[in-house]
Amino acid sequence: MLVLTRKIGESIVISGGIVIRVLSDKSGRVRLGIEAPEEVSILRGELLTEFETSPNKIQTRRDTFTKQKGTGTPLQPSH
After folding, report:
1. Domain total for the chain?
2. In whole angstroms, what is the distance from residue 19 CA to residue 47 CA?
3. Contact 17, 23 (CB under 8 A)
4. Which of 6, 36, 61, 78 is the 20 to 30 A CA-CA neighbour of 12?
5. By residue range, what is the domain housing residue 9?
6. Are residues 51 and 35 in the same domain?
7. CB proximity list for 79: less than 8 A, separation 6 or greater
């Protein structure tokens, strides 16, 4: 595991066009922004475990979110 220290506004670049940027740090919680190509799926760790046990549950969540937004097209987890 690579461990890095970053300040707000600084970023980490991963091959394949993935950029992770530190957006804010409040009350011990860090907000990260992730830029990645559309074909790259991004899930929080706790959702990955849920996805591995029940992939349809994640799709249902995405469809529900999409319908709430009114686009009619399922969103990719990374965007």
Report:
1. 2
2. 21
3. no
4. 61
5. 1-39
6. no
7. 38
Are the CB atoms for 19 and 13 separated by under 8 Å? yes
Helices and strands, counts by H and E, the chain = 2, 3
Distance CA 11, CA 35 (A): 10
pLDDT tens-place string over residues 24-56: 999 889 999 999 998 888 888 888 777 777 766
Considering the domain boundaries, does residue 62 fall inside one?
A: yes
Strand 29-35 versus strand 11-14 pairing type: unpaired
- Domain assignment present for residue 35? The answer is yes
pLDDT band at residue 74 using 50, 70 and 90 as cut-offs: very low
Regarding whether 48 and 32 lie in a shared domain, the answer is no
The pLDDT score that the predictor gives to residue 48 is 78
pLDDT averaged over every residue in the chain: 77
Nearest Cα to Cα of residue 42 among 56, 58, 25: 58
pLDDT at 60: 56
